[in-house]
Amino acid sequence: MQAPELPVGLTQDNQEQQPALDTVAVISPMVGTYYAAANVDSEPYVALGSEVNVGDTLCVIEAMKIFNQVETEISGFVRKILKRSGDPVEYGETLFLIESNNP
């Protein structure tokens, strides 16, 4: 039996590790469905290790047929992506961990 595939950036080894002090969790602002890209033919908004700046779109969450962009509030690097496209998300659920590059 094959182990279940984990989302990008999450491995069996680091699943229980605590984030660094300068790592910020990006949480879902609503209940809905997570999408990593604008559509199935598009590249994901971000990938593991991507550099992001304040206001960059990280993903979209579809709720009641409305697609809502989730933007980062800090600049830094994407260290973990905890969801895959099509996954359901709950309000307050962690979607990403971003390591701040601000001193």
TrEMBL record:
<dbReference type="InterPro" id="IPR001249">
    <property type="entry name" value="AcCoA_biotinCC"/>
</dbReference>
<dbReference type="InterPro" id="IPR000089">
    <property type="entry name" value="Biotin_lipoyl"/>
</dbReference>
<dbReference type="InterPro" id="IPR011053">
    <property type="entry name" value="Single_hybrid_motif"/>
</dbReference>
<keyword id="KW-0092">Biotin</keyword>
<dbReference type="InterPro" id="IPR050709">
    <property type="entry name" value="Biotin_Carboxyl_Carrier/Decarb"/>
</dbReference>
<dbReference type="Pfam" id="PF00364">
    <property type="entry name" value="Biotin_lipoyl"/>
</dbReference>
<protein>
    <recommendedName>
        <fullName>Biotin carboxyl carrier protein of acetyl-CoA carboxylase</fullName>
    </recommendedName>
</protein>
<dbReference type="GO" id="GO:0003989">
    <property type="term" value="F:acetyl-CoA carboxylase activity"/>
</dbReference>
<feature type="domain" description="Lipoyl-binding">
    <location>
        <begin position="23"/>
        <end position="99"/>
    </location>
</feature>
<dbReference type="GO" id="GO:0006633">
    <property type="term" value="P:fatty acid biosynthetic process"/>
</dbReference>
<dbReference type="GO" id="GO:0009317">
    <property type="term" value="C:acetyl-CoA carboxylase complex"/>
</dbReference>
